[in-house]
């Protein structure tokens, strides 16, 4: 029951504060600069912020997403975070196509300093998303505190993607 409550709170908080998060984060953390669509490996994290001695949390979106015949949308990418001792960390994603915006799932993050992939899926109908250009807004967010958990935005990314 507690896990469901945390997930529900995460979804509500993400939707309520997504504009803040995507504008650079309520706590001053900013989106990592990275060309969208490139595949990320540890050796690529050498721009100063991602070396072991200067590492910050990072989040990246893959250049392609999928739309299945049953309207299931799947988005993916890579993340890296250091510490989840203050509370659980999640990767959330929002898909924007035309004037439509929908939250596409959420993934619990493993914060061990290593690169991990994330994949979020959701059935999005009425109207369904279609193959073509779209935009993904992804957030790496930690929930912490007693009672109602409060979000702390670790990293965000906005990326143009191609739905297939």
Please describe what this structure looks like:
This protein has 164 residues and is mainly beta. Helix content is 13%, strand content 43%. It has one helix and eight strands. It has one helix at residues 2-22, and strands spanning 58-61, 64-67, 72-80, 89-97, 100-108, 116-123, 132-144, 150-163. Strands 1, 2, 3, 4, 5, 6, 7 and 8 form an eight-stranded mixed beta sheet that branches. Strand 7 (132-144) and strand 8 form a beta hairpin. The longest helix is centred in the N-terminal third of the chain and has 21 residues, at 2-22. The model is unreliable at 1-53 (pLDDT under 50).
Helix-strand layout with pairing:
Blueprint: H1 2-22, E1 58-61, E2 64-67, E3 72-80, E4 89-97, E5 100-108, E6 116-123, E7 132-144, E8 150-163
Parallel strand pairs: 2-8
Antiparallel strand pairs: 1-3, 2-3, 3-6, 4-5, 4-7, 7-8
Average pLDDT level: 77
Structural class of the secondary structure composition? mainly beta
Oligomeric composition of the shown chains: single chain
Tell how many strands the DSSP assignment holds.
Answer: 8
Weakly predicted, low-confidence segments: 1-53
Shape: globular
Q: Kindly provide the radius of gyration, computed on alpha-carbon positions and rounded to a whole number of angstroms.
A: 15 Å
Q: Helix content range of the residues, please?
A: 10-25%
Major sheet? 8 strands, mixed
Distance from first to last alpha carbon = 36 Å
The proportion of residues in beta strands is 35-45%
How many helical stretches? 1
- Encode the helix/strand succession as letters: HEEEEEEEE
